[in-house]
Amino acid sequence: MVLLRSWIVPMALFAAAGTAFGVGVSGNVKYTDGAGTAQPARRVKVQVFVANPGGDVMVGETRCDNAGDWSVDVVPPPGSLGFFTRIVADNDATTVGAGVAGTPYFVSGPGAPLGGGATPPMTIDTTGGNAERAFAVADAEQTSWLYGTAMRGAAPVPIRTVFPETGGGTASFYDPSDGTLHIRQWRRYAWDVIGHEYGHRLAHIDGLDNNPGGSHSFGVTNITGGAGGKSSGVRLAWGEALATYNGTAAQFVSAHPASPTTGDTIYTSLNTDTPGSTFAVNIDTHAGSLDAGEGDEASVVRILWDLADGTGGSEPHDRVTIGFAPMYDMINNDIAGVDELDDLWDFLFTRPTATDALRVDYGAIFEEYGVSPVPMGGMVGGTIDVSGGAPTFDWARGNNSWNDTFNLIVFNDALTTRVLDIAVPGDVTSYMLSGAQWTTLMGAGLGDYRWVVGGSDTFQYTTGSYWSDARTFHLVPTPASLALLALGGVIGLRRRR
């Protein structure tokens, strides 16, 4: 790229000076986002040159701050004619270029007379060419880098980003073999996509997954029937969901511009060049995608989000607030060899602070997003009298209908005592208490009870047992007993008269 220096007017007064002198040069750099709004070009590199009869010389280098402001003190050599600047697509997170190696993208910036001072404010128009668009890509990665630094307690090493990626296929991707990001042309403003790919970077450097790679979609299980199909499927779902989670969480934790699609819970796969191909999935609700169990990235990312976000209690199923930083620390440092959703469940279930009440709260989230069984039938809110015979409990399998082994747990209303803990025989979705179990339940007394179904999928190897949320039922005396009690009360009143 040719540096634009047409503004430079030889200044004989300064050029004739034989002694070098120090001056300050400053400025401000912004870029336009997908809506055409000017945003600070955070932490990008600014190089200051002097035009000199003997050849242009770089005399200073600095970075913009988070507002896009920059300043640097420089000493121009004798004979210099004036200053000009170069703005480089290089920030804390990344250097953006056309290939894995080579000169990064840059644009010519404003200049200043030899006496220094403030250069005119600059806005990089990203509707121009790839050099300009690179600044939008770099700024998206800056937010993910800030998030990674905050979560890890140490800054991720800057990486190279290839833009636009022109190789086979249509996907943007992270290449763990050389630690490079590859972003397609139509994703230049797709913060969620870029954040997702940077999320793969974080998973790679911290060992947060063992992603086999491959084609994947929201709302579709990746588990296949072939040898190793379950392991590959759940690991793919975990890796892709974790990348989406981290890319979205970055915009909640770290500073970012108020650009389209940023700072919300909707993962937007923005296609600037073909808008009709854009799709969106809300990772905090069911909008935009089905939930297909532990082999589906939609189920997994929604579980991660509800466990971590700060809205525990705002939804009936979301009663947990782990927090973004503790969640990252847990996955990074506490769960050895984590590479699938079951690893997270097992850790939550067995951690020293886990009570049955807290396990039920975890289970509510896993049930909501299609992994745990779903209690159903008359025992959900039902009233059972002790003369009616042993009750029957019913449930839906959950986990893409692949849970095949179940346990039924009946608690007291406070969830502090397990009255019954039953390994349900066979691959069934209904269970009637045995005579002995019914006797045990009646012996615990009248009142309110709560019940949970745990489900496991034993295909190839066992995952789970994933608990459901708890449902309430009421154990009451027989109608005849109630009548006798009422009659006894009346007789007692008469006698007291």
Write up this protein.
It is built from ten helices and 24 strands. Strand 3 (45-51) and strand 4 form a beta hairpin. The relative contact order is 0.08. The protein has 497 residues and is an alpha+beta fold. Residues 1-19 and 483-497 have low confidence and may be disordered. The protein has helices spanning 12-15, 130-152, 191-206, 229-253, 297-308, 324-334, 341-350, 356-368, 435-443, 479-496, and strands spanning 23-32, 38-40, 45-51, 57-63, 69-74, 82-88, 94-97, 106-112, 117-118, 122-124, 159-162, 173-175, 180-182, 266-269, 279-282, 374-376, 383-385, 392-396, 405-412, 418-423, 430-432, 447-457, 463-467, 471-476. The chain folds into three domains: 12-129, Sandwich (Immunoglobulin-like); 164-328, no CATH class; 374-479, Immunoglobulins (Immunoglobulin-like, Sandwich), CATH 2.60.40.10. Helix 2 crosses helix 4 (229-253).
Mean pLDDT: 93
How much is the radius of gyration in Å? Answer: 31 Å
For the termini, the CA-CA separation is: 107 Å
* Helical content class: 25-40%
β-strand percent reads: 15-25%
